[in-house]
Every structure is written in C-alpha cells, then in structure tokens.
C-alpha cells in the first residue's frame, strides 16, 4: 500500500513539474516568427511568404472593395476584405470631423486586423480637387483650371500642381485615409464630354506635365527605384490612382462611357503618354475606364490591361476597376454578372470596386476558381500586386491612423495655396472692345452689374462636380464674395436665373 501511494505521488509530482516547465516555456517563448511581418525582409520575400499562407477565400477577399455604407468590423473579418471606399456622400455622419473619420476608418481596420493573418485593409476615397468628400476640407480648382495655370513667364506651373498634391495628401491623411482616387489624366478631345472639367487639357503634353501631382501625393521617387514599382513615401502621403485607363476623354461625340474610335497609333500617341509618366513616377494604382476602345470594353480588354500595361510597361502596382465597372461590361449592367467577372478578372483587373453586392461577387469568384474558369495564377498575381502596395506604404507596420494630423484639414496654408491656384487659373478671353478701352476691372460705383446664371449664388455649382452637395456650403459664392469690395448704395444687383427664367432685383 505504501509502495502504491509512493508511486502515485511520484507520478503526480512529475505531472506538476511538466506542467510548470510548459508554463515557464510558454511565458518565456518568443512569438512565432512570420517573415511577412518582418519589415527588414525584402518586399518580394514578404509577399511570397504571405501568399503561400493564404486560403482561396482570403485571397479573393483581398481583391474586393466595398462601400462604407455596407462595411462593418464583422464584415471585414468574416470576408477577409482588402479595401473599403467612400463613394459620393458616403460619410461617417453629416459634417463629420476629421477625428470622426479617423475613428471610422480605424474601426474597420481593426476588423481586418482581427483575421487569421491580420492583413490590413486599404481605405480609398475620391479626392479629385482637394479632399472634396469631407466637410471643411480645402477645395482646389478642377483639373481643367489647373491645366491653364502659368508662371509670370507664361510657362506651365507643374510645381504648383505638386504642392496641391502634397496639401491634398495631408488632408486625406488627416481623416485616416491612405488612398486617393486621383489624378484623372484623361485627354479631353471633345468639349461635349460632361467630364471635361476633370481633364487638364486636350493636349497630351500638358497632361503629361501635370502628372507632377503624383509625387505631390505620394512623395518623390527615390533615384534607385525599379521601373513600374509603386512608391509611397511616408504617413503624410497617400497612394495615388491614375485614371481612367484609357481613352476616356476621346469617346465619340463626347458621350460618357462611350466608344473611343481611334487607331492603335492614335491611342498610344494621345491617350497613353500620361500613363507612361505616371508609371515612371511610381504611381501605386491605375483605374480602368468605363469606356470602350473600338467596341471593346476597357474593363474586359486583356490586350491593353495585361498585355500592354502590366507586361510591356512593367507596371507593378495594382489595377482597380471603376465604381461597379465589372457590372457595366454588359448592357444593361449586371445582365450576365458571372461572365463579366470572368472577363474583368481575366483582363487583369486586380481589385474590384464592387461597392455593394460583395457576397455575390465573392461566391461567384470562388466557384469560378474551383471550377478552373479563372486560373489560380491570375488570383495570385492580383493579390501579390495588392499586397505590394500595402507593404510599400507601411500598412503592415502602422495600420491604424492617429489624431496627430487632424488639424491639417482645411489648414490656412492650404487655403492660401488654393487661392493662388485660382488666381493663376483665371483666363481672360477678352477685355472690352479694344485693348486701349478695357472693360475690367469694373468700377465700384457702376450703376448696375449683371451676374448671369445659376452659379451666381450657389457654391456647389460654383465648385463643380464632386462638390455639388457633398462638401457642404461653407465658403463664399460669387455674390457674397462681391459685397465686401463694393461701395455701399452704389450698385443695383440684377440676377438672371436661366433655369427658371425668374428675375430678382
């Protein structure tokens, strides 16, 4: 009996010792080394290590970008989503502060980080003439205005454009967002196109020079950089997006999303050059155009997206669709969604701005890969490109934004820069009947001044597209801006509103 009791005690003591040793080992153990989380490793090695750890569902999730209105921490976690965007008017709350934006973005980011591999998402927003979706942000002239800015020497002023890019980047980062869907480098060839204001010029050489906004947004490319590799400098910079690839400004009769009928030589000599400049400056992403080239939808054009952009130009960032661009491969949109997914992903689109119906997209893509309709190699290529941008930006090291930059939003220095840009963008076509009898400047004591058009007292119309309603109504419209410089009781204002033929005195 004593011997049995002694044996039992020895066994129990041994178990206790093993348990203690295990606990001590666990307490003193180093965390499991993961190469993809080591910033000292080359980006290529980190990408390779991470991709081989990913499941098909995790890979496809990285290729999906959804709108803020359908995003949540749980959605990010459950579907392994790689990106979120704010579409027009998609905000945390009306007139949300910079801090509110930061908190919203961070909340979604925490959902992404809570996944098995902890891959951060990238949040994108249209910041096409300043951070135009955000209340109290600085608004700059549209590209059509910036395209005519000149030095006193009457030369183009690309350095002014670069400063605007840097200011915009700071304001975007102030809201916790690291990705801007800008610049638009369309070459508008027909003034009937409703988006001509987003084009710097009908002259591709001017558009090429205005790509200097990219180093403003992203930072100056290091001298030893490889061709086509994306670059984003630091946490005051954002990933840029050259758009819309390509020929969007050359559609027949200027009809939006229409067909660009032009030879390959014409396409390359007019619409391609600005993309060459953008890639040489390290642009991180390129967005595909809704339009077609000679009847072939750009979202389904493998020859130009993969064959030319990726293979020939060696672009190593990722290609993103336009808003529901996959849906619009067919007419009407979404008519044959499965075949559109096959065509779009097969063409070389890496990230799909699906916006809302993300579960349908994900399920369909999983089915197509498992049934060998879309090859796994195409998925891996897309994921590697997306991860490359995220690694280069430092999102794995610092995925969460802080409040240190909130005061950059609407900063006076940026507003002064906007005023400079406005002054330099003004073009006086004619001043009076003859040069020796100028009409301007108008005398303060003129009997009457006619201010014609609905823009006269509407700040949204005055600012133009992307700010008509989203930005709020802070600032001076044309009418209120005139009052401070006019002498009291000296003028009779006369407004004519073309849209309803009413007159107000």
UniProtKB/TrEMBL annotation:
One of its GO terms (molecular function) is beta-glucosidase activity. The chain crosses the membrane at residues 481-502. Pfam families: Glyco_hydro_3. Keywords: Glycosidase, Hydrolase, Membrane, Signal, Transmembrane, Transmembrane helix. Its EC number is 3.2.1.21. Residues 1-20 form the signal peptide. The keyword Cell membrane does not apply. PROSITE patterns: PROKAR_LIPOPROTEIN (PS51257). Residues 55-389 form the Glycoside hydrolase family 3 N-terminal domain. One of its GO terms (biological process) is glucan catabolic process. InterPro entries: Cellulose_Degrad_GH3 (IPR051915), GH (IPR017853), Glyco_hydro_3_C_sf (IPR036881), Glyco_hydro_3_N (IPR001764), Glyco_hydro_3_N_sf (IPR036962). It catalyses: Hydrolysis of terminal, non-reducing beta-D-glucosyl residues with release of beta-D-glucose. It comes from the Eukaryota. Belongs to the glycosyl hydrolase 3 family. This is beta-glucosidase. It comes from Linum tenue.
């Amino acid at each position: 009996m004593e011997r049995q009791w002694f044996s039992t005690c020895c066994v129990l003591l041994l178990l206790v010792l093993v348990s203690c040793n295990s606990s001590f080992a666990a307490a003193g153990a180093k965390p499991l080394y993961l190469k993809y989380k080591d910033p000292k490793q080359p980006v290529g090695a980190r990408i390779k290590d991470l991709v081989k750890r990913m499941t098909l569902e995790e890979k496809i999730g990285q290729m999906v970008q959804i709108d803020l209105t359908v995003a949540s921490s749980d959605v990010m976690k459950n579907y392994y989503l790689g990106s979120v965007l704010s579409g027009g008017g998609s905000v945390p709350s009306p007139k949300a502060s910079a801090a509110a934006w930061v908190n919203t973005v961070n909340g979604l980011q925490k959902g992404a980080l809570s996944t098995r591999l902890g891959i951060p998402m990238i949040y994108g927003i249209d910041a096409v003439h300043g951070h135009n979706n955000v209340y109290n942000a600085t608004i700059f002239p549209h590209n059509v205005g910036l395209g005519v800015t000149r030095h006193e020497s009457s030369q183009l002023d690309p350095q002014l454009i670069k400063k605007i890019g840097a200011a915009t980047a700071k304001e975007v980062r102030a809201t916790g967002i690291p990705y801007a869907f800008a610049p638009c480098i369309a070459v508008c060839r027909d003034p009937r196109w409703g988006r001509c204001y987003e084009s710097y010029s009908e002259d591709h050489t001017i558009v090429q020079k205005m790509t200097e906004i990219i180093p403003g947004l992203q930072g100056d490319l290091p001298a030893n950089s490889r061709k086509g590799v994306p670059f984003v400098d630091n946490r005051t910079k954002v990933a840029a997006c050259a758009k819309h690839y390509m020929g969007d400004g050359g559609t027949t009769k200027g009809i939006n999303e229409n067909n660009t009928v032009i030879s390959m030589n014409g396409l390359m000599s007019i619409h391609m050059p600005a993309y060459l400049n953008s890639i040489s400056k390290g642009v991180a992403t390129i967005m595909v155009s809704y339009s077609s080239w000679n009847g072939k939808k750009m979202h389904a054009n493998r020859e130009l997206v993969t064959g030319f952009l990726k293979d020939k130009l060696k672009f190593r960032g990722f290609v993103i669709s336009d808003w529901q661009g996959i849906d619009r491969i067919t007419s009407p949109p979404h008519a044959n969604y499965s075949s559109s997914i096959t065509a779009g992903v097969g063409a070389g689109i890496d990230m799909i701005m699906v916006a809302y119906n993300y579960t349908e997209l994900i399920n369909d893509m999983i089915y197509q890969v498992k049934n060998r309709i879309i090859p796994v190699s195409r998925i891996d290529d897309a994921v590697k490109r997306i991860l490359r941008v995220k690694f280069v930006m430092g999102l794995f090291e610092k995925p969460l934004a802080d409040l240190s930059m909130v005061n950059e939003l609407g900063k006076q220095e940026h507003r002064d820069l906007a005023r400079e840009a406005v002054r330099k963008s003004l073009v006086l076509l004619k001043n009076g009947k003859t040069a020796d009898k100028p009409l301007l400047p108008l005398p303060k004591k003129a009997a009457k001044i006619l201010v014609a058009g609905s823009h006269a007292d509407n700040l949204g119309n005055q600012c133009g597209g992307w700010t008509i309603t989203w930005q709020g109504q802070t600032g001076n419209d044309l009418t209120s801006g005139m009052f401070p410089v006019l002498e009291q009781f000296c003028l009779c204002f006369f407004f004519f509103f073309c849209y309803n033929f009413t007159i107000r005195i």
